[in-house]
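To whoever is on call:

I kicked off a structure prediction for a single chain this morning and the downstream step that reads the tokens threw a length-mismatch warning. I double-checked the sequence; it's 381 residues and nothing unusual in it as far as I can see. Pasting both halves so you can look.
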Amino acid sequence: MTVFKTYLKVLNKCKAPILMYTIFLIFFGGFNLKSSDNQMSFSASKPDILIVNEDKEEGLTKHLIEYLEKNSEVKEIEASEEKINDALFYRDVNYVIYIPKNFRQDFLEHKNPKIEVKSTGDYMASLSEMHLSRYLKIASIYNETKTEEELIKNIEETLNHSLEIEMTTKLDTTGLEKASFYYNFTNYCLLAGCIYVICLILSSFKNEKINKRTIVSSMDYKKFNRSLLFSNSLFAFVLWLFYVLLSIILVGKVMFTTNGLFLILNSFVFTFCVLTIAFLLGNLVTNKNAVNGIVNVIALGSSFLCGAFVPMEFLPTTVLNIAHVLPSYYFIKNNEVIINIEAFHLETLKPVLFNMGILLLFSIFFIIITNIISSKKRKIA
């Protein structure tokens, strides 16, 4: 209890860095979540076209024009080549369709009349070309019908045919992407917060007078380390819990889904790993002034290399290969896997459990190294 009470007194003096990293998380996480709310919506655009019809507007020709008018904005421009070329140049129209004389009759007689076109060559012109080609191909398929009325009816039925669209996923992709970004960013906040605070606290316990009193006391070094580890664990757990509650406030109800709960579980395992890293560094570092440098190297370096700030898909392969030696890589990789899981069973959870297992192995390794270093330092002293 003596170690724990002393720990709390020192911790009370480290409120500023904890608050600072929390503000970073709220600011950057909240900014991203707000920008993600501006969803891009799709609305079909109609290209501007000009129809130069030299045939009689009846039967198949009339139906073709009506179809084009339905899917495009038909402009009224003087039918002179100079005016038409000017309209194309200034993008007043995207596509010009020339329906030749006797088009209807020649088509019905299988003479394959050609429709000449002029185009601006942009995506709107391509859309117009797609509309025209679709109509002509369908008309060619049904051109074996007995009457023109039957031909037009068949074309109309095919053009009006709509496909049934079935949703293949029920995931709240927008909400999960927000949650993923939030928890990816906690990689930096957890590392920076825990390393900074724990290193400062442990360095206080390494004060020459306090250290000598600890050595001559009857307390075993392993018990002393366990007491400090417990105190650090409680601090890390409270910090993790605070960030989880913050994620529920910022991200919302998606955190109560199975995907959200696994994100929370993944962050808990990572927090334990971060705790052991901070405890190891705290036993290595004796100079309080060096703590800031360590935070910058470990927290910022891991965050940049492993995809906390920039998504993994945008990082070079070489960088990701290097990142494999860092615990942050497996934490962030897990976040990306979790948000894409639709059905939770052993097969889909294998990569998640594998990454969590690696994080636990890192933790065990750091604990063993910490005990070895602490034991050697005690003998030397």
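Update from on-call: the warning came from a stale cache, not from the record. Cleared it. Sanity check on the structure: The longest strand covers residues 48-53.
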